[in-house]
């Protein structure tokens, strides 16, 4: 369900109807030149702006035993120049707090220009100063681009990975079999080495298999791929013969007893092994027990369903008491209006916005500076052409992004960036269809699926009445760093432990057991050979 499915906000008689509000007032905050630049400002600066990347200095001597093992495996492979040296296929697993990002930085510093650091989402890529794997390898998105590259597209792919020998993919649990099949296909297209997995490139996967499974695709380990490309992905995944499992230190220096307690609670929740004491501890964070509840009024709300998210965002939008812009997308046909946002790169047929609204970017516009899918901010201004107003598309919406780190559009507001309408194409059995819309959605509340990979300073969490997707409770509660940083709607003990009866959990645990055995074999083999 999306917000447009609800009753229009203007049904509230206290709201100022969009038709009586002067939607051109915000233009006074910008020069005519700035307004003219808004639709192309990101594209222009993306081509001209040089990002001064300052990667974190990593002290190798501070590594845990398993971090050092993973690093040494990569280092040994990198320095092996023999012709018999096969591409490295390495998985590095670890839950939050085991130092995956720290290790990625060390490997990047080791491999330098021979390495591409990527992630499965824009937000995750931003967090590790990388790019999305989709952008690096020109992967298809939905129904768009699901064919072999030719001409200039193929040349651009070959140029982008020509000198790269190693590709790191973070948050790999979000990859499904079909996407992984396309990764194998694109690497082979880029190198021309069709007889070698990933075209002879080395791949390093990092992440936590306990996260939510991929949306609209099967997990990498699923025994029954859905099509030929999925089968290719399944086979490529099983070429990974080296695994390192990063472990949580039993008592990290400086951790409080509360932090250790919360960490251990999450580890049990991850496998459906929550105890009665865990349940009672979580209930101490239900709204009626939180003494500083007012401090969480502005926190991000996490819900399981799109309907709950839409309802909450609708409530918050109407509370703003600002005129609400009902913005219709432009469509190439009547059929295009009916296509879901998932098949239109996240673009909604209708968007509701107002000044001061909390919003999320739904597309990777410029991930390296923070303008990525999942980036959140606040609407500052809505800029319309002189002869237009809602429900027409505006020229741009000025959004203040908290974590933006790129060039300045307006010197008085260094974090404010113009977000402009984007046109995407979707292919169906009856042809191609276009939608033009702002890549924004309201974000006081988001789904637990959308929160995956985020670290939130505060959160108000509702895990729902059942574990409809294996891992949803673990992912939701794991978005914060401490129990005191969240409010949790009460749940029964049976609800908390319902993950245990999930067939999908059993499949995942079987795969984790296989990977654990590979990790033991990897450790033994490497130590025997190198020490």
TrEMBL record:
Catalysed reactions listed for this entry: ATP + H2O = ADP + phosphate + H(+)
Biological process annotations from GO: DNA recombination; DNA repair; telomere maintenance
Class of this enzyme: isomerase
Assigned EC number: 5.6.2.3
Keywords recorded for this protein, A-Z: ATP-binding, DNA damage, DNA recombination, DNA repair, Helicase, Hydrolase, Nucleotide-binding
Cofactor section: Mg(2+)
One annotated GO molecular function: 5'-3' DNA helicase activity
Residue ranges of every copy of the DNA helicase Pif1-like DEAD-box helicase domain listed in the record: 79-275
CDD domains registered for this protein in UniProt: SF1_C_RecD (cd18809)
Source taxon at top rank: Eukaryota
InterPro entries, A to Z: DNA_helicase_pif1-like_DEAD, P-loop_NTPase, PIF1_helicase
Family membership: Belongs to the helicase family.
Protein name listed in UniProt: ATP-dependent DNA helicase
